[in-house]
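Bench notes, afternoon.
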Amino acid sequence: MLFVTIDEFPSSLAHRIKEDLVAIMRKRGIAALAIGASALLIAGCAPGQLEDDSPQGVQTANPEDFAGEALTYMYFTDGPDEEATRQLIRGFEDMYDVTVELEILPYADLVTSTLNRLSGGNAPDVARLTSLTDFRSDLLVLDPYLGDDYADEFLAGPVQAVFNENDEMIAVPSDLTLNGPFINVNLFEQAGVPIPEEWTWEEMLAAAKEVKDATGTPYAFAMDKSGHRLSTILSQYGTYLLDSDGNALDIEKAEEALQPLIDMMANDDMPADFWLGSGSRYEGANEIFLAGDTPIYLSGNWQVAQFAQNAAFEWAVAPNPCAEECGGFPGGKFMAAFEQSENPALAAEFIRFMNQADNQETFVTIAGALPTRTDLSESGVTYADETTQAAMDVFLGDLRVTPEAGFASNANPAFSASATNLVDAVSLVVSGATDLPSALATLSRQIDDLVAELGS
């Protein structure tokens, strides 16, 4: 150990040390400790100390402090976003003279793999996540590195999910997603069925069946096997799995919302085998749509970039159908660092770099994502081509009429597990093991248990 005085440090660094010690004390529940220009007991000064010289209290880092360091970024990809991520990583490596190891794994393995690494003491420094619930106690508090006002740079909806029970920021909303229907324009034109500027659920499904009958496609409608996608339909019928206080499921409205899906799978208008084939695991129906086997596919904006590259037919995004409500159901990705990181300052700086306005704009335009930053939302984003721009404009239009309750539902710590139980409930009904009212009653009890276990 080495005894030094704060006065021996530059003023900005002395200020930073004080802030870090205060943060540590708060975190560990220490009531008080005098910190002045007197002696402090420290083990040395790690690279990457941050300086408090930027606007709004947001910290800045000296790139030279990180030279020669390395970090790991655990990542799953939806397709073109990998290209954008690698491009931005190269910029970060060049600016800071560091190495970033991009570890890509399947989305289905993300939670299990990350939990295994955490339990083994081998956590990645940074991870791309769709939910924070499984990792909240392991995530690095970002406020000491990014500043108390950093969250204000992001939209109020997606930022709801990134605070812990102490109102500390533990992740950054890196891109926003919205669910919505994709249309095979060629099939609609072949069938002579117009694509309206707005429609109800009944009108959309009637149009889908008319196109199926006229063109001979195997299905009228397909959707990802996802509790998030099902939550889109619940939202449009005026109910949610959760709100900020806990269980918000209206069973009567949920039955009205989901019964048409059950009926379509029973009538082969929607692929029942696809829904039953993967247990509780997420499964995307994008290959069914790309094969031309359905005129309508309910998914989300992350599909835009790959459809622009891979679809052999004309396609478009249509507005979400309306029932009691309009709009879609919001989601998104987060970037978070782990407390186990050997270089938390570098990890936090990497998160900040990737989500600067110019870098987030680069990412969302290549990946076909929606921005989470307030400034980008206000200024607008120009996408790569007319097809992508047209599709994203529809999602942005639907975002403006998406109920705020959707953000609160998605931000609830119990959402991810409740959404999995929703998938299981629908699967049981499709398989004939139970009826929809009974499955929803069981689901509601499961949500209550999850809220009690995980909080709200």
